[in-house]
Design brief:
Blueprint: H1 6-15, E1 29-34, H2 36-43, E2 49-56, E3 67-71, E4 87-89, E5 98-106, E6 109-114, E7 120-122, E8 132-138, E9 146-153, E10 156-157, E11 163-165, E12 170-175, E13 183-191, E14 200-206, H3 216-236
Antiparallel strand pairs: 1-12, 2-3, 2-14, 3-4, 5-6, 5-13, 6-7, 8-12, 8-14, 9-10, 9-11, 9-13
Length: about 240
């Protein structure tokens, strides 16, 4: 039986231009390609959600429901989404401009901060039971869109750093961080147009499972198998 030792694995990784994380620099694992159906199944409806930060353009009438919100929901309904966190009307969303935002955890306090608004805070969330984060965007059409860009978590770019929707919801999920440690999720939000509850984005702290399939893993596996085949071939020649 052949044992592929770490130096050989490192050589394969180097040949494939793949970085092997060290414990001190281990990065979070990221999953994309999720929709509302997948999230609802994994979450058990909204049962997995421990806290939700939201930006919503809503409609642009005088009674428009555009807002920034941070709460600890029992279920995601208008009545209780802001329980324990509060919300603020933010007409800037429907201007279609780009707004810098951050979502931070420190000493069991969550803070949702959007440029131009007072920061929203809550200490009601059970952060220790939220080892994964699901970021969701939902637009309506080409003229009513939602997008997030420059997405980072503790300085690490998440996926390609972008998430956008002109119709059905799109997600980016990640895990592999210590939920009770201090962390910062940052990015730039842009909501264009608005009607009803879209365009909008949510950042959900959850205990739902993240199932990553990093693009590098198939390449790395192929390299390992190829190296094993070469060694076996040399042994039989």
């Amino acid at each position: 039986m052949m044992v592929l030792r770490l130096p050989a694995l490192a050589l394969v990784a180097a040949a494939l231009h793949v970085s092997l994380p060290t414990p001190a620099s281990a990065a979070v694992i990221v999953e994309t390609g999720i929709d509302d159906t997948v999230f609802t199944t994994r979450c058990g409806g909204t049962a997995c959600e421990k806290a939700v930060a939201e930006g919503r353009a809503g409609n642009q009438a005088a009674n428009g429901d555009f807002e920034a919100a941070l709460g600890v929901p029992n279920t995601l309904t208008t009545a209780n989404i802001n329980a324990g966190g509060g919300s603020a009307q933010f007409t800037g969303w429907n201007a279609g401009a780009a707004w810098t935002l951050s979502y931070t955890a420190a000493s069991n306090e969550l803070v949702f901060d959007v440029t131009g608004l007072p920061a929203l805070t809550t200490t009601s969330a059970d952060i220790a039971d939220a080892p994964s984060i699901f970021v969701r965007v939902r637009g309506r059409d080409d003229t009513q869109s939602a997008s997030l860009s420059g997405l980072t978590f503790n300085g690490q770019t998440l996926g390609d750093g972008t998430l956008s929707s002109t119709g059905s919801a799109a997600y980016l999920a990640f895990a592999g961080f210590e939920p009770t440690a201090d962390w910062v999720l940052a990015g730039v939000a842009q909501l264009v147009g608005g009607r009803g509850s879209a365009p909008a984005f949510q950042v959900k702290l959850t205990d739902a499972q993240v199932v990553p399939v990093p693009a590098a893993l198939p390449l790395l596996a192929s390299g390992i198998l190829g190296l094993a085949w070469l060694r076996r071939r040399r042994a039989t020649v």
